[in-house]
């Protein structure tokens, strides 16, 4: 029973992979990209790493269309929370950029009341609330987040994934990936 469910899920996912990004992401034609809400809170650094390991980035409201999609996801998945965005000043305090390199000064999103305040001089990461307003917060506090991948042609590997680091072992007929970057200090092989 467990094996047949596993193969059903694999076939279901493969059906949507061709011409798409991943089966756990939803495509938005208006925002021209794929989105995945992650409700299990993580620090900003772990959220960024987890999105990156999936071939995506930590979502930032860099366009009105992406902002609208992020707000729609938030209102559906976690309306009462602030979520991490990819906007940060972890390299140089006060110099905010998205993980894609877009300066905050070019992003047309307003601040929440009394923000930014850089409370205790430790707030280097930007959150988004359900009203579509930004706030600066500590990066180490855990929050939900959204991973995003811009629309582009996606090559699917022989393992049925877009991640080129998976390889097919012909002896076992299974796919493996050695993670060289750990999350929370742990390394693992996933198949």
TrEMBL record:
One of its GO terms (molecular function) is carbohydrate binding. SMART domains: CLECT (SM00034). One of its GO terms (cellular component) is extracellular space. InterPro entries: C-type_lectin-like, C-type_lectin-like/link_sf, C-type_lectin_CS, CLec_Tetranectin-domain, CTDL_fold. Coiled coil: none annotated. Residues 1-19 form the signal peptide. SUPFAM superfamilies: C-type lectin-like. Residues 43-148 form the C-type lectin domain. Keywords: Disulfide bond, Lectin, Signal. This is C-type lectin domain-containing protein. It comes from the Eukaryota.
């Amino acid at each position: 029973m467990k094996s047949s469910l596993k193969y059903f899920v694999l076939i279901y996912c493969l059906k949507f992979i061709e011409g798409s990004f991943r089966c756990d992401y939803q495509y938005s034609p208006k925002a021209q990209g794929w989105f995945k809400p992650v409700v299990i809170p993580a620090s900003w650094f772990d959220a960024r790493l987890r999105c990156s390991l999936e071939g995506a980035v930590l979502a930032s409201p860099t366009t009105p269309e992406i902002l609208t999609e992020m707000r729609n996801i938030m209102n559906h998945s976690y309306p009462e929370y602030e979520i991490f965005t990819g906007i940060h000043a972890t390299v140089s305090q006060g110099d905010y950029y998205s993980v894609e390199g877009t300066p905050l000064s070019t992003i047309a999103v307003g601040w929440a009341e009394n923000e930014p305040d850089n409370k205790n001089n430790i707030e280097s990461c930007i959150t988004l609330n359900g009203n579509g307003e930004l706030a600066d917060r500590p990066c180490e506090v855990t929050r939900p987040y959204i991973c995003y991948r811009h629309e582009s042609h996606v090559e699917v590997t022989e393992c049925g994934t877009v991640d080129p680091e998976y390889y097919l072992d012909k002896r076992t007929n299974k796919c493996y990936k050695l993670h060289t970057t750990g999350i929370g200090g742990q390394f693992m092989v996933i198949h």
